[in-house]
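=== RUN LOG ===
request id: a7f3
mode: sequence -> structure
chains: 1
length: 94
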Amino acid sequence: MAEAANDEITLVIDRSVAVVLFEFLSRTVDDADGEALVDFIEDEAEIPALWALLAGLESVLTEPMAEDYERRVLAAREAVMKRFGGAFSGKGGD
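=== RESULT ===
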């Protein structure tokens, strides 16, 4: 089956989740071309896919350009933890 010329999807996520993902991807994928994740990827296509996700988030978020970006990231992290809880029980997120 041939793919459509514009085979895009729309993803709806909470803004705080998007900000946390943007910050994570900025640190791990954009900085040093994804070398921080080299032990965790199974296929080299995963890094460009993460770059595309980062670019998509950057295109819709205003937070990365805000003067108080760090404060907004902290607030977004708190909102995510409040809504979903932490992945590592007993450990702080810092």
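=== NOTES ===
The radius of gyration is 15 Å.
The mean pLDDT is 88.
=== END ===
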